[in-house]
């Protein structure tokens, strides 16, 4: 069977565009999901593009980044509060794998910062494991060390001392994945969330009933 050159060209361009997204943290950029080109690409290339879409959903629904004290990989109370939100989201999607990236600021040697970034990533994975998430779903802990600062400064900077959690793929042997039900995974609970009453609406109703 011959494939139309036009169709082949469009497909290759779509795949190339998506391929560039996999050279960085998924949560670092929120590409749109739902336009015609993206939908065609999702159909043609499968898991890779569903991973991007689910990664965008993760980064839009929960904070994906925590920060650390200088030269530390200890989780403070603010970090734990954010990781608890991440863990709850992760447990909602048993078909999905996650990756944790570690970062440091620019103070210190590159070698020591690489090691520190990895310790930070391992601390996050250890917390997730303590919440009942299988380590088999928490893969490829990577340290970028000082190479990707949020703020360009050679001084101590908390925003640079961080980890970022992202969606990295799907669990290969999960029934939903074996059946190719990626779209169902991505859109899970959207209808349920839409039907929930907003807390502000509930509070306003209560105040009115009570005489405001």
TrEMBL record:
Pfam families cross-referenced by the UniProt entry: OmpA
Keyword entries, A-Z: Cell outer membrane, Membrane, Signal
Subcellular location: Cell outer membrane
InterPro entries attached to this UniProt entry: Bact_OuterMem_StrucFunc, OMP_bac, OmpA-like, OmpA-like_sf
Signal sequence, renumbered to the chain: 1-16
OmpA-like domain boundaries: 55-171
One Gene Ontology CC term in the entry: cell outer membrane
Broad class of the protein's primary localization: membrane
Superkingdom of origin organism: Bacteria
The keyword Signal appears for this protein: yes
PANTHER family: LIPOPROTEIN YIAD-RELATED, STATOR ELEMENT OF FLAGELLAR MOTOR COMPLEX
Identification of the protein by name: Outer membrane protein OmpA
